[in-house]
């Protein structure tokens, strides 16, 4: 029988505590800013930042469970119940993938023959999809809805074509530059986030297209935006926290 205060018990208790805390963090970050998308009955949010932060810091098990539960709680709370089950699977798998790959970061990834094709594929895929779908479906009059615990506000604005061209170019340059300019660990974090985010984009596209029967292609740039914003917010914060923790241990 395992003693009450054994290392295994402590480790399990620690994981449960961390899962509980970051499930709440992911739920709150997802609900904090939500932009309704009438065509797909979904919404834009910044929950990816908390998902990636959790997965990078705590790995696959905590990342997968907290991401699935936290995102599902947000869906149910905001009234997007059609997405709840799909969200639990898709976001849970997203957190698991990022956490799993982050755990493998000690593997040597400085070989340009391995890194260059991965980064190039990620750059072309994300930048190309942003421009193609954005210019095709998100130019003209747009409606922007901000939901907070206090009230819901709706705004209308004109989205110019140049915005998507600029965003696509900036995203591609940023991915390619950061992947080769900084240390290998950062490059691996970027690859992990892009692969996890790619699963999320594909998962929702298939669910909306095959199950809900809505115009799923319209939400591709929205989900890509979530991935990009999430990576920009989460990776620097996660690296800063990990650096401080290592310094305090040493």
List keywords for this structure.
250 residues, Arp2/3 complex 21 kDa subunit ARPC3, single chain, 74% helix, mainly alpha, two-stranded antiparallel ribbon
Q: Quick gist of this model?
A:
The protein has one domain: Orthogonal Bundle (Arp2/3 complex 21 kDa subunit ARPC3). The protein contains 7 helices and 4 strands. The chain has helices at 7-32, 47-78, 84-103, 112-137, 161-181, 184-212, 220-249, and strands at residues 35-37, 42-44, 140-147, 152-159.
Tell me about this structure.
The protein is mainly alpha-helical. It has a single domain, classed as Arp2/3 complex 21 kDa subunit ARPC3, CATH 1.10.1760. The chain is built from seven helices and four strands, in the order αββαααββααα. Strands 1-2 form a two-stranded antiparallel ribbon. The protein has a two-stranded antiparallel sheet with strand order 3-4. The longest helix is centred in the first third of the chain and has 32 residues. It is globular and about 50 Å long. The two termini are 35 Å apart. The N terminus is likely disordered.
